[in-house]
Specification:
CATH superfamily: Transcription-repair-coupling factor, D7 domain
CATH architecture: Alpha-Beta Complex
Shape: globular
Strand order of the largest sheet: 1-2-4-3
CATH topology: Aspartate Aminotransferase, domain 1
Strand content: 15-25%
Keywords: Hydrolase
InterPro entries: TRCF-like_C_D7 (IPR037235), TRCF_C (IPR005118)
Number of helices: 4
Number of strands: 4
EC number: 3.6.4.-
Helix content: 40-55%
Protein name: Transcription-repair-coupling factor
Oligomer: single chain
GO molecular function: hydrolase activity
Structural class: alpha+beta
Order of helices and strands: HHEEHEEH
CATH class: Alpha Beta
Largest sheet: 4 strands, antiparallel
Length: 107
Amino acid sequence: MQDEISERFGKLPETVENLFAIGGIKYLAQKVSVASITQEANRVLISFREGHPLTGEILLRIAAVFGNKISFENNKKFSIKLCCNNMSPGEMLEFINKVLHQLITLL
């Protein structure tokens, strides 16, 4: 759909591209039982539903891929924190997308 709109109207504004990226992220998030994705300053918090499919092995592998750009938290809900220092909104969305794609690949 994004390609069709681009062909018809030319280069899309960044805000419209970001909107398409958010739609893709919502789709991917459903596949790995994400409850919510929130931004806190320079961090993005991906919180998971109870009974999520992530195992310790998957978390170790995802940590190996993204290094110090991610950390884990297990308060009321299990969460992955993404460090997004000096990222534009588009870069942040791309980073979230990469993390979710990697999680899906590892499942």
